Protein: alcohol dehydrogenase
Organism: Cinchona calisaya
Amino acid sequence: MASTAGQVIRCKAAVAWEAGKPLVIEEVEVAPPQKMEVRLKILFTSLCHTDVYFWEAKGQNPVFPRILGHEASGIVESVGEGVTELQPGDHVLPVFTGECKECAHCKSEESNMCNLLRINTDRGVMLNDGKSRFSINGKPIYHFVGTSTFSEYTVVHVGCVAKINPLAPLDKVCILSCGISTGLGATLNVAKPTKGSSVAVFGLGAVGLAAAEGARIAGASRIIGVDLNPARFEEAKKFGVNEFVNPKDYTKPVQEVIAEMTEGGVDRSVECTGNVNAMISAFECVHDGWGVAVLVGVPHKDAVFQTHPINVLNERTLKGTFFGNYKPRTDLPSVVEKYMNKELELEKFITHEVSFSEINKAFEYMLRGEGLRCLIRMLE
């Protein structure tokens, strides 16, 4: 691999030329990594709803042409100046948020919201020089959340790359670089349910099912899935969900339904929808005195969370989380080990698989609401 170090690499990438239009497989030029950057050979990537959201460009600044993709696994091809932790051949997960290890957030044991490398959806260039590392015929193609994994090669800031066990199967652990870790960590790191406790999970998509998986790993005895789509209930049983509530089946607010089911409320709840009403329900359905609700979903920019202050005064706790409170470089290797030790099951999240040339099929599956994660194999 080192033979390409320092050189421009020509490779295939799926380029989003404009909002909502199918991605086009193009030959792109990928520049060598600059200071504190790493060039990666992407072997597997998967499609997350965030990619679709920015591809549709609804409600945010459209940045095109762009190479999307942020859930992936690969191998280090070459490293830029100042990179000491990684070397060519290392197996890695690129992550949409980073860990510089030097800012106040990175030095805090409580935070993973790095000042330097926190997600920035509007920035389409590298931090080092404000330029893109991708181009076609000299025209820049923009980056996406610092990762751009829908390309056979990509350039990423070293702080957004987690070095993992080289024995871990890259076609499985690639999904840990975003959604699955977010849901899992929301439960294990933030909600922290105890053995035998009750947990309600709002939204049974991939992130919500990862939150349920966290509750299963923690030993929760009652895991209540809340979703408007009853078709999701059967799938959710594989992730430890053992009771289901569809808010549409009741005339009263779902938080009252859950409080009645559980004699006062659940011990923990995790909200994974981004719907502000679901967030309010998730908070109001936890038990007074000790209940903890964790918000994971990203709400509409104009949404307002309203609840009566007595719900807080009665000793309910409301928390938020970003990427499951995992520090990417420090913590992700241990999440991979959970899979290697068979504590965490990843196979059940991967419901579809396509070749890189068929990447638009992955978008079709997600737009139709089919499956959880679609794996995209970069090598044809």
Observations:
- The mean pLDDT is 96.
- The radius of gyration is 21 Å.
- The chain is about 25% helix and 25% strand.
- The first strand starts at residue 9 and ends at 15.
